[in-house]
Amino acid sequence: MSAFDLASIEAPDFVEPIEAWRVWRVVSVKDGYRLGSVVKPTLWPPGEPLCAECLRSSPLGMWFRRKREKAHAVPDEGCECGIYAGWLPAIRPYVSDPPASLAVGRVVGQVSLWGTVIECERGFRASRAYPLRVYVPTDSPYSRGRRPEELIAGLDVYGVPVEPLAARCSEAVGVLERKQIASLRGDG
Question: Which pick of 30, 61, 75, 106 has the fewest CB atoms within 10 Å?
């Protein structure tokens, strides 16, 4: 007889991470640049996965909620928490927005999602994620006099390909869609 109950072992839904698209804001920190969420004040750590937390409300609201209910797994079906990524067309609304405060600009890229992954309306919410590839729009204005080459060099801290994309940020999704189609056809 085994020391554990085989019925209690949960198999992952997927063996490989899910690859999806997202937009990041680029934030200047004392030792370079970091990728940040365009919605929450979260910075992605270089060299290690981002682990999702439920950031549903203010700290005071979370304290009251913890008193009433148990903490839940992240992401959870009954919450909106998790690390978001989606299909390329679904990220279009996030590239046309002006940079958030404290942001140098915005970049687009592919991300690996794993752990608990929930499919949602425009993509996925996951418990763990790490960038796969980052595209820096070279025709976009970057705040505080930053140049695209500076961002490309500074984001190499993530150890993934960081490539220039000849477009404005607002045009990035269309350019990447055309690039994907050309790749599927064998054109490039």
Answer: 30
The answer to whether residue 65 is domain-embedded is: no
Question: What is the distance between the alpha carbons of residues 24 and 35, in angstroms, rounded to a whole number?
Answer: 6
Lowest mean pLDDT among 78-92, 122-136, 146-160: 78-92
Report the first-to-last Cα separation within the chain, whole angstroms.
57
Residue span of the structural domain in which 176 resides: 13-52+83-185
The residue among 109, 182, 97 whose CA lies nearest residue 140 is 97
Residue 101 CA to residue 116 CA, distance in Å, equals 31
- With vertex at residue 62, the alpha carbon angle to CA 41 and CA 58, rounded to the nearest 5 degrees, is 40
User: Is 180 a domain residue?
Assistant: yes
User: What pLDDT, in 10s, does the model give residues 56-100?
Assistant: 655 555 555 554 455 777 777 778 788 999 999 999 988 876 666
State the pLDDT at residue 60.
53
CA 132 to each of CA 50, 66, 79, 101: distance values in angstroms, whole numbers, following the listed order: 13, 35, 26, 25
| Overall domain count for the chain | 1
Q: How far apart are CA 186 and CA 15, in angstroms?
A: 28
pLDDT of residue 132: 97
Asked whether the beta carbons of 53 and 74 are under 8 A apart, the reply is yes
Whether residue 1 has pLDDT greater than 80: no
- Give the pLDDT score at 9: 46
